[in-house]
Design goal:
By secondary structure, the chain is mostly helical. The chain has helices at about 1-10, 15-30, 40-45, 50-75, 85-105, 115-145, 150-165, 170-185, 195-220, 230-240, 245-255, 260-270, 275-280, 285-290, 295-300, 305-325, 330-335, 340-355, 360-380, 385-405, 405-415, 425-450, 460-490. α16 crosses α19 (about 360-380). The mean pLDDT is about 85.
């Protein structure tokens, strides 16, 4: 019986072409935006005082932790004919899109005063609403991917297809936005920068919503969840008594780095003088990003998961340490970090290393997360994705929000000025941007690799887990069907 169940449940391919394409479109939607330019939007267009922005980030960070305390339970208590996660995915593509359109249209309603009270209050309220919807989306997406198929290889195949296909067009908004910013800054495009952000932001938000809505319509949740009460005691239990989840939690906590892409934009614009340099350095490594997906399945079979996890996520951090050391030569005033001729080749080399291992960086973390959720079911006998992910998020965010909320304040106190204009920041501010874009993310990334060495859910242990899960799920499914038949016979 066990062998038959394993063959039927564990090795079967569940996700068909239509569902795979829906996931491809959804995966594209997650990158089809200009969110990387949000901080430039605040600095150049919305004009919010950096200290006030830091305070709002702190408040929003606290709210982000608080809303996890009830949103996870809400998701676990959701039982509809659409399933447990799909309704929230649909809500994100609709109501979330509306919020993003309001976000990018914000300059149409308020002036440039950095301390205007009404602007600050509305900006904070909008940020808190967005954070709530984003939390629902994050938990629902991870839960849906963990339950879309009981076959782990089926999931990896779906992830790989999506990453390869969507990478063809998903970076178009960022490249276009970077080019438009350069044209405006260098007086080659006689259009207000406000109009560029508003137009690109709204167009990308609507396009992303149209791409993302497909998964909530065409996907299926194939791993059943019993009707049972959930609470955060269970969430804590599934984290602290689950080695994979605990390792992921500690890795996230130790990775204290601020948003890498956000501060890279600042470095390219305010120090090197052109956002398009960021696009230029990606050209040599671009073909490798496709090549990397050709070997991911072979590596998964031969190399331990923790080795791939560390390699994929940290190889660029080792390169960043070298870049920082070279860029710091000459000090703040005359440092090589200002030299386009020196920095671009080094940044290009780092990107080549990163693109060469892109498939590992994209696929393995997703696989580890869904495997960890399945591990909780294997060990405890039930699934509580909502409270498990929300509890993990609360703990991780509580540590990280304190550091991240002060990032913009750090910029101000190193001399960054909202009124300096393009290319006119002080040497102290420029060097601070270099530090924040290169060494801070690298330091957090390298520190986060320490817990990864203790990850062991791979090879024979992983195979045994999924074989036993297949049996457990089949037995539970049969028990549920027998109970329903019994109720039906009594009623008849």
């Amino acid at each position: 019986m066990s062998d038959d169940l394993v063959s039927k449940e564990y090795k079967r391919r569940y996700v068909g072409r239509r569902e795979s394409m829906a996931y491809v479109l959804f995966d594209s939607s997650k990158s089809f935006h200009i969110d990387e330019f949000k901080q430039r939007f605040i600095l150049d267009v919305v004009k919010i005082d950096l200290d006030l922005n830091a305070m709002m980030s702190m408040i929003n960070g606290i709210w982000d932790v608080v809303n996890d305390s009830f949103l996870g339970v809400l998701i676990d208590k959701t039982h509809t004919r659409w399933g447990k996660f799909r309704p929230f995915m649909f809500m994100y593509s609709t109501f979330g899109c509306l919020l993003m359109c309001v976000y990018w249209a914000f300059p149409l309603f308020f002036g440039k005063d950095p301390t205007q009270a009404s602007k600050i209050i509305c900006w904070l309220a909008l940020a808190m609403l967005q954070e709530t919807v984003a939390t629902l989306h994050s938990i629902s997406e991870t839960g849906l991917l963990a339950s879309i198929t009981p076959n782990p290889d089926d999931r990896v195949r779906m992830y790989t297809q999506a990453e390869v296909i969507s990478s063809i067009w998903e970076s178009i908004p960022q490249i276009t936005m970077g080019l438009l910013i350069d044209l405006v800054n260098h007086n080659k495009f006689n259009v207000p920068i406000d109009s560029v952000y508003v137009t690109m932001g709204i167009v990308c938000s609507l396009s992303s919503a149209l791409l993302g809505i497909s998964l909530s319509i065409y996907s299926k949740e194939r791993i059943s969840k019993p009707m049972r009460k959930t609470n955060y005691r269970e969430g804590m239990r599934t984290i602290f008594y689950s080695r994979p989840m605990l390792i992921m939690l500690f890795s996230e906590i130790l990775n204290f780095s601020v948003g890498t892409a956000t501060y890279e934009h600042n470095y390219y614009i305010d120090v090197l003088g052109s956002e398009s340099y960021r696009n230029l350095i990606t050209i040599p490594g671009a073909p490798l990003s496709f090549v990397s997906y050709a070997y991911i399945n072979a590596l998964r079979k031969k190399v331990p998961t923790k080795v791939l996890w560390i390699l994929g996520q940290n190889i660029k951090d080792f390169a960043a340490v070298i870049i920082f050391a070279v860029g710091s030569v000459g000090g703040k005033a005359h440092g090589l970090y200002k030299s386009v001729g020196v920095m671009l080749p080094m940044l290009m080399a780092r990107d080549i290393l990163y693109k060469g291992t892109l498939s590992i960086n994209k696929i393995i973390p997703k696989e580890i997360m869904t495997d960890a959720l399945d591990f909780c079911e294997w060990k405890f006998g039930y699934r509580t994705e909502g409270v498990t992910l929300a509890t993990k998020g609360m703990i991780s965010k509580a540590f990280k929000n304190v550091i991240n909320s002060f990032a913009t304040s750090i910029m101000k106190h190193t001399g960054y000025s909202l009124n300096a204009g393009f290319g006119n920041q002080s040497d102290d501010a420029k060097y601070a941007l270099f530090v924040m874009s290169v060494i801070m993310p690298a330091a957090g990334g390298l520190l986060s690799s320490i817990p990864k060495f203790f990850y062991d859910l791979s090879g024979e242990k992983k195979t045994r887990m999924y074989e036993e899960l297949s049996v457990q799920r089949a037995i539970k499914s049969k028990e549920y069907k027998d109970a329903q038949d019994k109720i039906h016979n009594v009623e008849s």
